[in-house]
From TrEMBL:
Membrane found in the keyword field: yes
GO terms under biological process: response to antibiotic
Residues of the ABC transmembrane type-2 domain: 19-246
Localization per Swiss-Prot or TrEMBL: Cell membrane; Membrane
Domain of life assignment: Bacteria
Annotated TM spans: 21-43, 49-71, 105-124, 130-151, 221-240
Protein name per Swiss-Prot or TrEMBL: Transport permease protein
Topological relation to the membrane, as annotated: Multi-pass membrane protein
Any GO molecular function: ABC-type transporter activity
Keywords carried by this UniProt record: Antibiotic resistance, Cell membrane, Membrane, Transmembrane, Transmembrane helix, Transport
Taxonomic lineage of the native organism: Bacteria, Bacillati, Actinomycetota, Actinomycetes, Mycobacteriales
Any GO CC annotation of this UniProt entry: ATP-binding cassette (ABC) transporter complex
Length: 246
């Protein structure tokens, strides 16, 4: 087995042993049940059912949650000295971070599958066809990769496992709660709407809604891709630089 394969398997087994994987798999069901019970009938989503409106945002929240746990994995490897030991082996400096991100994407696929099954039970439907369904999955995974790279960079430079996790809680909540994920833009105060409309969670959620229905606004798609690709490039460079320094 290659170094990349061995380290990816190690990361997946670690997530399964400490319960993180189980928590990730349950999170989309909890999000769907909680928001549907609390907000169903209270939020005007026009011609779209609330389940059809909510599930893409739950997908975004779930893959972001998976990606943020990469910070915990990265911090554990950094503080245990694993990175230093791996640096003595004849492998690329990119292998450890690539393995953590590969494990993150595998977990994201599992969580995405759970979210879609749970969403179907709540009334969500993919009506855009196979091509749009594939684009839906790829967009969600691209967002996961972008956030995962940033989380890995933070974990690789932290001095505390708890500190890395706590630093990411507030941004995650602000991005999700102040977005069009759970309610349309018109429900927010007018002065807040530009932020709500243009932040990445809102843009990707709207793009996924369009892909689910088979009608995607080009401007929204390009803005979502710009956010995701931009974050991948910036955080990727930071992460690889941190690995080489280690």
């Amino acid at each position: 087995m290659s170094a990349l394969g061995a380290l990816t398997e190690r990361a997946l087994m670690s997530a399964a042993r400490d319960g993180a994987l189980a928590m990730e798999l349950l999170s989309p069901v909890a999000y769907l049940a909680g928001f549907t019970v609390a907000l169903h009938g209270l939020v005007d989503t026009g011609h779209m059912t609330y389940a059809q409106y909510l599930v893409p945002a739950v997908v975004v929240q779930s893959v972001v949650f998976v990606a943020l746990i990469t910070a915990d994995r990265s911090a554990r490897d950094h503080l245990s000295g694993l990175g230093v030991r791996l640096a003595t082996l004849p492998i690329s400096a990119a292998v450890p971070v690539s393995a953590r991100l590969a494990a993150t994407l595998v977990r994201a696929v599992l969580v995405l599958s759970v979210a879609m099954v749970a969403g179907y039970a709540f009334g969500f439907r993919m009506t855009g066809g196979l091509g749009y369904a594939l684009a839906f999955v790829l967009m969600a995974l691209l967002l996961c990769l972008a956030v995962g790279l940033g989380a890995d960079a933070l974990g690789s430079s932290t001095s505390s496992i708890q500190g890395a996790s706590q630093l990411l809680v507030v941004p995650q909540l602000l991005l999700f709660m102040l977005s069009t994920g759970i309610a349309p833009e018109k429900t927010f105060p007018e002065w807040l709407r530009p932020y709500v409309r243009n932040q990445p969670v809102s843009l990707v959620s709207e793009t996924l809604r369009g892909m689910a229905c088979g009608h995607v606004a080009l401007g929204n798609l390009m803005a979502s891709l710009a956010w995701c690709v931009g974050l991948v490039l910036v955080f990727g460079a930071i992460t690889l630089r941190a690995q080489r320094r280690t």
